[in-house]
């Protein structure tokens, strides 16, 4: 609360208000000082007395003394009233100067507030919008035009990157498909094929499949980072997790892994891309299965908490370094072979998970468990389940 109050007191409008208020106040104080000096200077000028006769000298002196006493009393009264009036006028002027300063500051900063609100509204999905601030050519309009130029360059850059991703998706898959087709033709000839050739063909197929998966992961990461969110729908994280575990039942059995149900509820619903969230869930489950020890365990939780749909996947293992774990959300980052005894993986799995969660307004937390192993917590905006939605 104190921090919010401190930030509020440092706004540009408040600084302008203080500046204009002080300037108005100083101007008024100077005007009052000059007025008081001129008035007091004039009040001390004694009027010239006419000459008097000798025989009335004593009476005249007595009368002069009375008049001087009266004048002195009037001057003191006038000075006191003038000072009181000056203080009251200065207080009124201080209040008026603050009000005028705030009004002037608000009018000066109004175009900047408009620019700020419009800039916050513009994101990667509506870069075509422009500020288009009207008015004469001044510093504010120059700033708005500069931001419009920047938005135009960003729009062109995003469009070029999207075209690159779309073209790369086609151009890079074509030679892979051609290589796989030629390999199949070569091993399908009727004459006997040496065993070494068949072994080499199997290795090449494995490498081609790995390249294809790597390419698919890279393109998914690129599309997600550029805001491409297809087939948005209301989906259930719990149902997706159950489907992902069922699809990997054979791999889980082969490695003798134990899956603990930490609470897979049907309350974790979110509005998101079905394709991307399905890939996100598959990646985090694959990561838990692949980077695990034979005979290890996995605990999966899908639930709703506050305004978030949560997916938590935990695995056991050795104690990990939190700094290294935090870097797993970056592309091509691995913990090494000695984490699980397996060097498989492209280093893109958790980075894709993080990119998909961020694109949907969520987050991913990677935490090294104190007892050993890893906990992955995915948070997505919670929404209400819709009738007829079965995702």
From TrEMBL:
The chain crosses the membrane at residues 12-34, 82-105. Its main location: membrane. Residues 106-159 form the HAMP domain. It is an enzyme of class 2 (transferase). Gene3D superfamilies: 1.10.287.130, 6.10.340.10, Histidine kinase-like ATPase, C-terminal domain. CDD domains: HAMP (cd06225), HATPase (cd00075), HisKA (cd00082). It is found in: Cell membrane; Membrane. Keywords: ATP-binding, Kinase, Membrane, Nucleotide-binding, Phosphoprotein, Transferase, Transmembrane, Transmembrane helix, Two-component regulatory system. It catalyses: ATP + protein L-histidine = ADP + protein N-phospho-L-histidine. Its EC number is 2.7.13.3. The keyword Membrane applies. Pfam families: HAMP, HATPase_c, HisKA. This is histidine kinase.
